[in-house]
Amino acid sequence: xxxxxxxxxxxxxxxxxxxxxxxxxxxxxxxxxxxxxxxxxxxxxxxxxxxxxxxxxxxxxxxxxxxxxxxxxxxxxxxxxxxxxxxxxxxxxxxxxxxxxxxxxxxxxxxxxxxxxxxxxxxxxxxxxxxxxxxxxxxxxxxxxxxxxxxxxxxxxxxxxxxxxxxxxxxxxxxxxxxxxxxxxxxxxxxxxxxxxxxxxxxxxxxxxxxxxxxxxxxxxxxxxxxxxxxxxxxxxxxxxxxxxxxxxxxxxxxxxxxxxxxxxxxxxxxxxxxxxxxxxxxxxxxxxxxxxxxxxxxxxxxxxxxxxxxxxxxxxxxxxxxxxxxxxxxxxxxxxxxxxxxxxxxxxxxxxxxxxxxxxxxxxxxxxxxxxxxxxxxxxxxxxxxxxxxxxxxxxxxxxxxxxxxxxxxxxxxxxxxxxxxxxxxxxxxxxxxxxxxxxxxxxxxxxxxxxxxxxxxxxxxxxxxxxxxxxxxxxxxxxxxxxxxxxxxxxxxxxxxxxxxxxxxxxxxxxxxxxxxxxxxxxxxxxxxxxxxxxxxxxxxxxxxxxxxxxxxxxxxxxxxxxxxxxxxxxxxxxxxxxxxxxxxxxxxxxxxxxxxxxxxxxxxxxxxxxxxxxxxxxxxxxxxxxxxxxxxxxxxxxxxxxxxxxxxxxxxxxxxxxxxxxxxxxxxxxxxxxxxxxxxxxxxxxxxxxxxxxxxxxxxxxxxxxxxxxxxxxxxxxxxxxxxxxxxxxxxxxxxxxxxxxxxxxxxxxxxxxxxxxxxxxxxxxxxxxxxxxxxxxxxxxxxxxxxxxxxxxxxxxxxxxxxxxxxxxxxxxxxxxxxxxxxxxxxxxxxxxxxxxxxxxxxxxxxxxxxxxxxxxxxxxxxxxxxxxxxxxxxxxxxxxxxxxxxxxxxxxxxxxxxxxxxxxxxxxxxxxxxxxxxxxxxxxxxxxxxxxxxxxxxxxxxxxxxxxxxxxxxxxxxxxxxxxxxxxxxxxxxxxxxxxxxxxxxxxxxxxxxxxxxxxxxxxxxxxxxxxxxxxxxxxxxxxxxxxxxxxxxxxxxxxxxxxxxxxxxxxxxxxxxxxxxxxxxxxxxxxxxxxxxxxxxxxxxxxxxxxxxxxxxxxxxxxxxxxxxxxxxxxxxxxxxxxxxxxxxxxxxxxxxxxxxxxxxxxxxxxxxxxxxxxxxxxxxxxxxxxxxxx
Length: 1181
Known about the structure:
14-stranded mixed β-sheet, 14-stranded antiparallel β-sheet, disordered N terminus
């Protein structure tokens, strides 16, 4: 498609007689003299025709006259060839052939300026910012109403504004050519000169057509003048006896009957039509004489356009070219030359026609003289019954601003003078443009296009007059009819209504598709005259109509590649847009007109949102709204009538990075792939979707939709972790063993399924954290390499995050073996997914196929050693019932038969660590230890003596169980009887152990104690005594805390009846070692002296005194060395006096602190930042 060069001026009808020169006469005489020597003319066909016409002009008589009658504005220029005036000047007598009559009319059409209508009942104008400023329009973001523009003095004439009156351009003259059939004498009277009923209209061969009639025409009595050839001797295959009435046979019609479909036949006419078909076939020598057994009427039989087009091309070999001077040419509309077919006739009044009610009076009002297009019947007589309306057609033979090659469709020219105005400063908006005329001409009269059959324009009314033409015509094409020419010729409809040379309603419709989904659509441009505010101007509006409501898609293309598109069907609910703004190009990288590829935009500048419904592969539907791009077939189809890969890829590049491709789905559930195992296994709440387009040579219209990404919510992850986060995924080919159908998008941030805050859903001891990498039909949300998952392989080192822990410390990825196949029919891949039943939505996390292996951590600090039948099982189901019923969490999780060896100091043996909870059962945390449960090693061997007091099953259904939102603590306490032997007494002896399991990701902590700090044992021997306790905490990294205290002293008391008193003095040592998070340690050593005394008199007055002297040292690891960071002492004296109801306590306290070797004050500790700034400012000058 390109802009044509200068077109030959011969396209216009000549306005005067051809010149007769002596030189041309001598040239022709020379040609005729040398014909015997040169039998073949060397020039072209057109040159040969021109020579013949020139010869006719020079050798034959020609008479020109002007018929003028002012009463009815009749003015015609009439030229007779082959005739001369009679001696009495009262008639014309024939001389020599050819005998032609050329009737020349005044211009019949005007090209009138139109204005763009942006929408709304009153109409809105598209004005730029400067125009709105001149108009004093105070709403810059809203369109301007037309009524405020017309006649407004504030409008700047230099801008693109509406300033009446409209500019108009007049067409050339119109010419009708008749063959007088050698009529001997023509009277020089108006009635005789205007009587063309016996003449044959001379038309270009490309304007001819064949008569076609429907069954309805034949069965109607008034139309008995239709001619059908009588059947000859023909062998006909008889099907079943049918009673038929004989068809009356008028004179034979020698024209080849065609098969043009006018209207579908009704059931009651089918029998009659079959009989007519047989007669037609029998009459035509080029038709088969055999009738198929189940033949349908011609009105419902699909035609072989290829054969008919080839026959027409043979008979009418000419391609579009300027109309010859001796052929009929009607320039209406402007710059477009129409011609009726050979069956056309012109009907007009030959006498003045006065108003009937004024006849016989002195007043005279005459009807404007006009000539109306009619048609003839097969006898050649004028048809007054309208039976032949089907063949009242015209064809557009030429236009002055088109290209003769149909593939060179010109770019639109908005200039009124036919000169392309690239700057757009002289934009002339009108009903038809040069590219419109190019399509009209070639689609109605180009018989030289292979595989394409031009279609004539159906005329409802065509009248010619001195004041201009009346035109009511329409031509429509079905899209399949244009399949071989869509690269340039994609006009679906042209409807034109004009009165007295002025256009009233002009509609052009062009074929295209809606990008990216590919639905067939049509761009409609209507130019319509509307009376507004005292003006009846032409307003031009655009809208897009959807002609293909639904389009279906396959999950794979014809090359067996995945399409990455979750919808099987897209339905566009919007039948047509409202009036839109004048189109502007979507991308400037593609040439052509602005309306060849654009986003339909509303008058407010916002893209129009089409309403669509997408049907996924499980039959579900989601509704959404989004802008679409209209793409003309001029863009998507190349000259070879294949899909234009270059243009479509440019379109893809522009669209794929544009914000309009992102669509909100409002969290509707969408099946991202077809469910196979269970219904709904691929359904996810979808927040938004990003569509892309891709070139596909095997799918119409050359592009197919894909999805770049989808933002989804995995409710299974949300229910487990308690966090709602969108996951950005892109679709994958689901034809794999693992059922992987989506993967994490490259632009998506890392999203972790973190069980550290939800350990109660996996058994507490496990935090199988992982980063999401994809979605699986079988396993739901998955991690690790997708290629492994597609083959049902499990690589724990790739699947789990580094913070996925067992007991908060042991990396899961290091203690699970890589599994290449199913284990006992169970999947090695953890499955986290949702299942929907009639009663509830169920979130399941199941993991049964893990096989454990021995592994050391942190050097030899910790060793995990599973037994031969060690297993890790997690079965979690979260029920969200649809009925009014509380949700339920059911967990059954355990890890069995393993030992944990800590730093060579202790070995803890586990038979089973389990966690179970249910909707109607209590939470049960089980730690079933081996026997022995704990074995101390190395320097802690002495503690092994205590383990005989702790049963191995002490933590199974234990004496106490504390459950909080952060974790669970299970413990066992054993009290021993007091031991007394003479003066030796040992009291308050108890042993305890507990296991704390965190739900928030903390490590599993085990604690063993001999008595407690707040409840130490006591040992007395006579007046001397003491006490103490010992406690130790361990996790899987080793010792966390060791705490111990011992005290000793003496006590004495006296009771004299009226007075009693007691005194004690105790000294002790407290030791505590705590391991810090940075693997350092903190040691606290405390020595103290406590003196207590009390005196009571008659129980009325009581006085007590307590003196406490403490010396505490704090030791920490500083720069890799253990140093005393702080030493401080504190002395406290407390005196309390009670008299009856009165009580008073006085406390005196003093302390002294000493910095240790490792805590020397730094410069920053000695001076603050503000003080340092003031100090620097003092010396800044």
